[in-house]
Amino acid sequence: MIQKFRYKFIAMSTTALLVVIMTIVGSICGLTYYHARQEVNNVLTILVDNEGQLPTSGQTKHYPQPQYTREGLQQYRYFSVTFDRADQLTSVEDDHITSIGPQTAKRLAQRAVKRGLKNGQMRYQGVAYAYRIRKQKKATTVVFLDESLLMARTTELMHTGTLLGVIVLLLYALLLTLYSRRAIRPIIQAEHRQKQFITNASHELKTPLTVISANTEMQELLGGENEWTKSTRQQVDRLTKLINNLVSLARMQEQPDITMAPVDISKLATSVSQSFSSVAKSGDKQFVTKIAPNLVVTGDENLLRELFNILLDNANKYCDPQGTIRMTVQPAKHTKNAVITVANTYKEGENEDYHRFFERFYRADESHTKNGKSGFGIGLSMAQYLIKLMKGKISAKYADHSLAFVITLKLSEK
Question: Is 193 helix (H, G, I), strand (E, B) or coil?
Fold first, then answer.
């Protein structure tokens, strides 16, 4: 259990760092890409405003940034094509690019015009070009800008950021793995002290319980059984069962001995229900079962039997006088699961928090005063842990004055 907690701690911490790294790198790359696209659009606007050529003035009128001066624009690779009103080629400006000739420029411009879009992107021989079309009364100008160098900054930054992020993440995970045991050492020590306390306290409590039980038996031999001796024996049995449950739960959490195998849950439920029916009848309660045949799940037979006993014992304990206990084992309607439901009538449970029933020794305040019942103890906590070991699910729900515990286990492949 401690190892699982350690691995979960490492996984959650590494995931948190991964999210932070992805957010930072993604934000930087996104901003860089945005600025690169803005630069492409600004340069295209300048070229289109000047009919596909560099501006003649020392600095552009609408874009006073230093990089958009005439000298600054020399770094960009671009070409432009102009058509007249009859779509006849009138001029090609390709002095600022060497990989594109006049005929190629004409074909690319015609392709861009056919698309019918004022802006767009086009690839030629593996190079990405951004283009913009400006239509006037007498002519149409198509300007192309080689954006590969501009976009290369974003790509390079993305690769560098990803590489550094992976390196940082691996180093962090390595250091966290090396020092995680030291970080959770207080939790390990507290868990060990808790289990040791439960074991020692259990042994210490068994001795006085044995003495109380022996004295009660002697008293009954001498004076006969009465309501006081009967109550004492019931409380001794209850404490003995509670101590055994505490020890069993501590041992299961420390080193669970579980054998996962196909189990005929239908036969097992039938066997347990037959032995329980007499207990229900002795308490003047009705016991109703509905068990579908031949349902096989993957689990541990001993743990499943213990699970049934816990839930049925809990149902019998909290069932209303002359109430009804129901146990159903049915296949799920839409999934390949078996659904086990153990329910009992419990009229006073409408306002209780059913999600807390699996907490150890949980009991609502009303139950202290109204019916004097002993709370939900540790049994449901054990049931939840047993289900978790077998990769199943358990939940509590309340409807129609009945409290039901629903278990879901995956059906075994036949």
Answer: helix
Left (φ > 0), alpha (ψ -120 to 50) or beta: where does 294 sit?
left
Rounded-to-integer distance, Cα 379 and Cα 405, Å = 13
Measured distance CA(43)–CA(36) in Å, rounded: 11
Q: Which CATH entry fits the domain spanning 261-410: 3.40.50.2300, 3.90.550.10, 3.60.15.10, 3.30.565.10?
A: 3.30.565.10
State the Cα–Cα distance between residues 215 and 209, nearest whole angstrom.
Answer: 10
Quick one: which of 390, 408, 414, 260 has its CA closest to 331? 408
Residues 23-66: tens digit of each pLDDT? 998 898 888 888 888 888 888 888 888 777 766 655 445 554 55
Gyration radius from the chain CA atoms? 39
Amino acid at 222: L
Tens digit of each residue's pLDDT (9 = 90 or more) over 170-199: 998 888 888 877 777 777 777 777 777 767
CA nearest neighbour of 55 among 37, 27, 76: 76
